[in-house]
Amino acid sequence: MNPQVGFLLNKALEALRSSNLDSANLYLKQAIRFQSNNPHALRLLGVVAAQRGKYTEALEHVKKSLKHLPKNPLALSNLGNIYLALKQYQNALEAFDQSIKLDPSYYEVWTNKGNVLHELELYEDALICHDKSISLQPGYPEAWTNKGNSLYELGRYELAIEHHNNALTLKPDYYQAWTNKAIALFELGLYEEAIEHCDKALLLNPEYSEAEWSKCLPLLLQGDFQRGLPLYESRWRSGKITAPQDKRSFDKPTWFGAESLQGKTILLYGEQGLGDYIQFCRYAKLVSDLGARVILEVPPALKSLLANLEGVSQFVTKDDPLPEFDYQCPLLSLPLAFKTSIETIPNVVPYLKQEQISDKLQEWTHRLGIQTKPRVGLVWSGNPRHKNDRNRSLLLSEMVPHLPDRFEYISLQKEVRAVDQATLEANPQILNFAADIHDFSDTAALIRGLDLVISVDTSVAHLSGALGKKTWMLLPYVPDWRWMLEGVDSPWYPSMTLYRQSARGEWSDVFIKIGLDLECLR
Prior knowledge:
Blueprint: H1 3-17, H2 21-34, H3 39-51, H4 55-68, H5 73-85, H6 89-102, H7 107-119, H8 123-136, H9 141-153, H10 157-170, H11 175-187, H12 191-204, H13 209-221, H14 225-232, H15 235-238, E1 265-269, H16 274-280, H17 283-289, E2 293-298, E3 314-317, E4 327-330, H18 334-337, H19 358-368, E5 375-379, H20 389-392, H21 396-399, E6 408-411, H22 418-425, E7 430-432, H23 440-448, E8 452-456, H24 459-466, E9 471-475, E10 496-500, H25 508-520
Parallel strand pairs: 1-2, 1-4, 2-3, 5-6, 5-8, 6-7, 8-9, 9-10
């Protein structure tokens, strides 16, 4: 190797170890001028590009490096990490397996492979890889915290914390491990400790958006909107709920409450689930009351339901050409823009009114037929792809024994999982209209004909609450932040009663309480 190239590569490595990407890039560019096809310089250029989030460029550099050194386990590991960042998991596994085949003692690549298996939700397999990495190098903190993350996904929170502690013992300034531990503490209900750990991470790296996100959740859950809502904006940077690439790009500024909207036009749009949309579209009227002309971008599934939402001047769907506007704001940033507190939540219901579904009411009244018993709607599971589905959804077979015979039950599930289908068929007292529900206006009209809705935390529960229908919500031990920690009442929906798990994963107490309250219902 050219001595000058070797010198520049060493300087680049020193800069990388100090996280000085600009200097590293400069040294590597100089090395390439001396030797354009130097595989080590090309590989390191890929590492620098990857650390800057320029994964396409990184991929190009590392692939060029491998053309010259096709059996370089380090370059193959770098390639796998880039594929992992691009969510090309099978390509990542192939690269890591090739690296391991060339050097089975390469401990870093074992935990990297474990990270891919983690993303594929193969958590037990991921643990095997992390353990292999730890056995090869017990002093490698990344393997300890990565294993902790897989243990977390398996619900083994105390053991996950032990592994994060091991990582922090080895590397006290490991801000990612501080945050990972905070996430596990949160699931154990240790909210103040979780906040403290996020603060430690942010002290080490004030720009670490994952720590901001992990801090906002316990704050909001405890009703501290003043501190929690500004941190909730980190959802864009952290990608925890809304992926950064999904953030809309507009040439008009985001309105966060500072500018006057008198005589201005503002675009409001959703960015999360349909339940979130239903919950926060109530803010459209408040925006309109400030003198704004409100354009609301609606998902197709909600278009007919929201057609007459108060405060909205114009509706568009995402693929429609957008009219001119002066400002824009995602719906879930409106609580921050209005400096919302628990006391000032706009909770006048119904804000989805009967005239919005009047054409469907007669149809569903006819379909339900003459009422001979009180009617109760049931929702026992949500979207199986939801990250928290394992905590919020339950089996219909667990609920059925607690449902008194004196009611007529209506399934409000649009999709029934295979595991629940047999139970539904074996219980003809639960009417199933899934095939007749085409959009949320059908669900809303069906809910109008009921006396009560019992639901887990799904979009249907939000719909029922927004319609002002009596709603009983079944909540997991650690609920979503909007339901807060205590109490049976919801500050968002006055017609809603909250039934909370007393222990993680334990629904029996909730079902017993529901059954007793149904017996008392008149």
